[in-house]
Amino acid sequence: MMLTAVRAAPVVRPGRVARVPVSIWDLLVWAFRWERVSLDFDELASVAGERPGIGIEYILMKRGDLGCEIDGGGRSEPHPDAEAVASALAVLPEALGGRRMAVAIAEFARADAWPDFGTDAARCEPEEWRVTKWGRFARRTFWTGTGRLDRWPAHVLGKDDGHVCLVRYTGTARDAAEMRRFWLTWRLALLELRTSFRIGGDLTGFVLTDALPPLEPWKKGLDRKSLR
Predict the structure, then answer these.
(1) 3-class DSSP assignment, residue 145
(2) Would you call 187 helix, strand, or coil by DSSP?
(3) Which of 31, 80, 176, 217 is deepest in the core (most CB within 10 A)?
(4) Do 80 and 112 belong to one domain?
(5) Residue 62: pLDDT above 70?
(6) How many domains in the chain?
């Protein structure tokens, strides 16, 4: 899924005395982009140190083979609120995309970008390009015909005849509809995360505001760079 470039989210920091108001999106960006938290879809096994079919002795042996130290080094642990964000995202309901949507949201948050919602006009472009010292040109191929359209008769072709430039269409109505369906599901997933944190009260340094990405930005004629 393509990304829509937007203005960088402000770098938020958890409050030490009072909780800091923050939108669900800025919270996700803080957790994945700045705290560098990662998703763990098997959190219980990770906490218990379990891996199917692999014992701790095998893991320690492999670390020794690689020359790895058991303790020390690395970076500091993420903030507990960032860990809570990752845990909540990892159990996103299947009705909202499940693990696939969770991974997409994490990638969008790391890039601080929103999904493309299909505002580009339909366009026709070559399937392949070739670059020369004179510039970039569409790559041509000799037309051999298809099941519906035969090639040109050989007796009417000159030396340089019979070539075509294969093209593709992007930004069509079908493409835009698919992008907008994804946008709506992505926004519903953010709403689900915001609601779960408000009900559970799992955050210690933040309090979530009502702010969400626009519901249907393609209807408002918004410029992508001024969405937030």
Answers:
(1) coil
(2) helix
(3) 31
(4) yes
(5) no
(6) 2
Q: Where are the beta strands (DSSP E) in 6-122?
A: 20-22, 114-115
Pairing of strands 206-208, 20-22: parallel
pLDDT tier at 123, thresholds 50, 70, 90: confident
Q: What is the residue type of 15?
A: G
For the chain, the distance separating the N- and C-terminal CA atoms, rounded to the nearest angstrom, is 20
**Residues β-bridged to residue 129:** 138
- Which two structure tokens, joined as six digits, stand for 28? 């996700």
Q: How many helices and strands, by DSSP H and E, does the chain display?
A: 7, 10
Q: Which residues on adjacent β-strands are paired with residue 20?
A: 206
Please indicate, yes or no, whether residues 72 and 136 belong to a single structural domain of this protein: no
Domain coverage including residue 147: 123-170
Residues 6+ apart with CB under 8 A from 209: 21, 22, 23
- The pairing of beta strand 129-132 with beta strand 135-138: antiparallel
In this predicted structure, the answer to whether residue 174 has a pLDDT above a threshold of 60 is yes
For residues 56 and 100, membership in a common domain is answered with yes
Contact 128, 166 (CB under 8 A): yes
The β-bridge relationship of strands 135-138 and 206-208 is unpaired
Q: Which residue would you say has higher pLDDT here, 142 or 169?
A: 169
Residue 52 pLDDT class (50, 70, 90 cuts): very low
pLDDT at 223 over 90: no
The answer to whether residues 166 and 205 touch, using CB atoms and an 8 Å cutoff, is: no
Q: Do 131 and 214 belong together in one domain?
A: no
Is residue 4 left, alpha or beta, with left meaning phi > 0 and alpha meaning psi from -120 to 50?
beta
